[in-house]
Each structure stands twice: as structure tokens, then as C-alpha cells.
């Protein structure tokens, strides 16, 4: 199994209160992690830029102008060619040098000469509405299919309202010639419709550009630009959304883009199972009292009998250090191939539930630890305001909490990877490393949740 290059996942914390009196160190907390991770001495550093809409427009227009001059075509035609060839000016120029007409035909900008001659020999009648028109009242592009302006307007209006822009085609039968921007705008006069057309066109151009990616954050106008298209982590400085540059999904290292898509699709198909696990509570294995997990750590202590156990396997935590490898590894039935189809289906579901429960558990732990982080910050600010030390004295606890968050995020995405990983020595090594990380993460989580901020200088990591 091949996996795309990726680095460790980490999302920024929720924005703090904007009130300066309540959040003295808000700016520090908000930007600290992003600034730390973007240092170029970091072996996992990924270079990217945050662009505004006007910056992207300028970039695209520079490419259009360069191609227009190079092969002597109109800017509108140059934009169609670039969109069809992933905005590589040099690729279009090289193809143009080989065979100019072939380039245009393949790009759905010009049809064959035979088609053009056949269409131009017709009388001046719009073949859509069948109304006679003067010669100069019919209009079209290089394919030779000519229709009245009213029919063109209706055609464009319907297509644009359906979200079509760069893929607008000629109305001619079996003609897939693309409509250049200048022709469309010469026909469409409604300002609102023109704006929609240009907005959809801009979105299409960004999506077709290998160096550009829209930030998936809600209502975020930022466009990310990176020199190489890799499955690397990007953190938007404006909305703090963390995502994979290659696929645009939530960052998912060490799982590759195609694998995480398969996993998310499977989780969606088994949504009822996911809902059950998400809402599921467990009983204490010693006194059977019902327990709901309210912290990120899997090291649980029953409030009634004080029994320490593992939330995932319900095993005694005292012996858990030596057995953690077994807790995080799925034990397959070695004779499953000889079992009935029903037994194999039941085993497949059992395997999926094993990995999904751990995936879901870490996702919930991240949310719970996010709440714990806010409480830690509030207590630190309270101590600082009471002159019980400075924020530097309490920095060790924030560093530990941030490290915990980073490791747990990565650990969550090891389970989809392990689910699809074929049996063998590679999987055994991966599961051993996964179990080692899991044990350290739970140990750190236990200490962070129970750390006393008054114990200055005590390291919890």
C-alpha cells in the first residue's frame, strides 16, 4: 500500500474572547502554534501562501497575458486553453508549436473545418426558435453554429443558474465547443447573472490550478497557494481551519488521501453504527456502575469504587502497561477463510467496529481535551493576575497540552491506515509503533488532566 507524503496533524485552538481585559495573552495563544510549526528548520515544514481574491486574479491574469502574447490569441481564448491544461503556460506553448490546430480542437475551442463549412451554408434562420433573422443578427463562435441573441441568452441563463461557467458549450447538435468568456459576457446583460458567471468561473479556475486550493473553512475567502501539490498540513491564518492541501479534507496524516476517502465513505454508510458508538456508555468492570467518559484520557477511575481500568478494553489499568500493544491491535481469526460467508461477514463487521471505536474515541478525546485546555488557560491567567508567577512559569503545562493534542490527532488517523494495511511484517511494526505512541499519549493525558498549576516547575510530559 502506497501512502502520500504527509506530516503530523494539528489544528489550531478555538479563538479566545476578544475582550482585552479577559484575554491578556490571546494573541500569543492564537498564533504561537502556527508560528512554531512554520519554521523552515522543521523537517516537516510545508511552504504555502495565503492569498486574497485580488491576488489570485492577478496571478491568473498574468498567465493569461503571457500566453496571449506567446501564441497570439485573445485573452478569452487563452483563459480557456490554460484552464484545460492546468494553467501551465509552457505546456500550452509546447503543444501549440507541435500542432496549433490540433491544440485548439482538442481543447474544445475550435471544431473541425468540415463542421464549420456545413453550418455556414445554411439560411439565416435560428435553428432553435426557427425565426428568420438578418445575417448580422445571428451570432456564434468559431464552430460556425449561429443562433439569435435571445436563444443564446436563454441558453446561458439556464446554464449559469445551474452553476455552469467554464464548461458552457455551444447549443449546436453534438457540438461541445466551449464558449469563451468575452462571447458570453457580450450576450449576458443581466448584472446579477454576469456576476454569477464570473464568480463560478473564478471558482473553476482555482480548482483547476494545481498550486491553488480554497480554504474549506466556513465563509473563508482565503486561497492557499503552494509550489507543490502534496498531502501536507495547511493552517489558514484567518479562520484557523486545518486541512490537507492535496485533497482539501481535514488533515489526516499518516493516512493517505485515497485511504481516508474510503474510510469516511465507509463510516457514512455505517452511520447507525457510528451513532451507537458515539452515544455509548460503559459499565465499570468491577462494580458495574454506568460511566460516561468526560475527559480525553482512556485511563478511567470509577468514582464509586475507585477501580482503574482502560476505557477501550475495560482491562485493569495496573497491568495495562505490558498489555497496551494487545489493546490497540485487532486480533483476527486465523481460520476465518474456512468459515461460512455469514461468519466472514460478522468478522468483517467486528474488525471495522474495533478500528472505528478507537478512531471515534480519539476524536471525542480531542474535543474534551480542547475544553480542558480552555480551563487550563483560564486558571493560568487567574494565577498571573494574582501575581502568582508569570505565564512563563506555567508554560510547561501549555506545552504539554499542545503536544498531547498534536499526538492524539495523529494517533486518531493511524486507525484508518491500520484498517486498510495488509497483514505482514510492515503492519506488525506499524501496530507496535502505534501502541507505543498510544501508551505515551494516555500517560501524558492522565497527567495533564490532573496537574496542579500551583506545582510550578513540575514537568508533566
UniProtKB/TrEMBL annotation:
Residues 122-331, 287-327 form the RING-type domain. It catalyses: [E2 ubiquitin-conjugating enzyme]-S-ubiquitinyl-L-cysteine + [acceptor protein]-L-lysine = [E2 ubiquitin-conjugating enzyme]-L-cysteine + [acceptor protein]-N(6)-ubiquitinyl-L-lysine. Keywords: Metal-binding, Repeat, Transferase, Ubl conjugation pathway, Zinc, Zinc-finger. Gene3D superfamilies: 1.20.120.1750, Zinc/RING finger domain, C3HC4 (zinc finger) (3.30.40.10). Signal peptide: none annotated. Pfam families: Ariadne, IBR, IBR_1, UBA_ARIH2_N. GO terms for molecular function: ubiquitin protein ligase activity; zinc ion binding. Its EC number is 2.3.2.31. GO terms for biological process: protein ubiquitination. InterPro entries: Ariadne, BRcat_RBR_TRIAD1, E3_UB_ligase_RBR, IBR_dom, Rcat_RBR_TRIAD1, TRIAD_supradom, Znf_RING, Znf_RING/FYVE/PHD. Residues 1-25 are annotated as: Disordered. Belongs to the RBR family. Ariadne subfamily. This is RBR-type E3 ubiquitin transferase.
